[in-house]
């Protein structure tokens, strides 16, 4: 899946990103959200950073990787400015800014490697999102809505899950908006 999304040319990536930003701009989860976590795209992930300029009245936050012994992501307010610091995976992160508690975000847009229509998500394997939103395993209505963002080609019929995997509420691709739970 990672190779397939990386194989998309720059124009395909741009068109997909614009289509998903358009779809998200009409999505009830985004329309009702004020505090939104998003991500910096890497390795062929869909770029939805255009939402920041398109929705200036909303507050957007980027994840910051945890440092030991803290296992959870922090989300730092981001206004769309260039970032110069890169974390240990070479992903740009905001160095300064106000953190927002992950559980108090309204919506989190999450990258993924693969997904299935039930809301199972295959990430990059480090478990950052699962550890950050573990409370949803105990209290299904707690915390933000979790929406996966993907190219349609990342949809598979079935993904096996483990007990610690947090299912997505939905997934948005350039072709569909999946409602999962």
From TrEMBL:
Q: Please give the Pfam families that the UniProt record associates with this protein.
A: 5-FTHF_cyc-lig
Query: Which InterPro entries does the protein's record reference?
Result: FTHF_cligase (IPR002698), FTHF_cligase-like_sf (IPR024185), NagB/RpiA_transferase-like (IPR037171)
Its domain of life reads: Bacteria
E.C. numbers? 6.3.3.2
Cofactor or coenzyme needed: Mg(2+)
Its recorded reaction(s) are:
(6S)-5-formyl-5,6,7,8-tetrahydrofolate + ATP = (6R)-5,10-methenyltetrahydrofolate + ADP + phosphate
Give the UniProt keywords, A-Z. Answer: ATP-binding, Magnesium, Metal-binding, Nucleotide-binding
Family matches, as PANTHER family: 5-FORMYLTETRAHYDROFOLATE CYCLO-LIGASE (PTHR23407:SF1), ATPASE INHIBITOR/5-FORMYLTETRAHYDROFOLATE CYCLO-LIGASE (PTHR23407)
- What's this protein's name? 5-formyltetrahydrofolate cyclo-ligase
* Organism the protein comes from: Microbulbifer aestuariivivens
Gene symbol here is ygfA
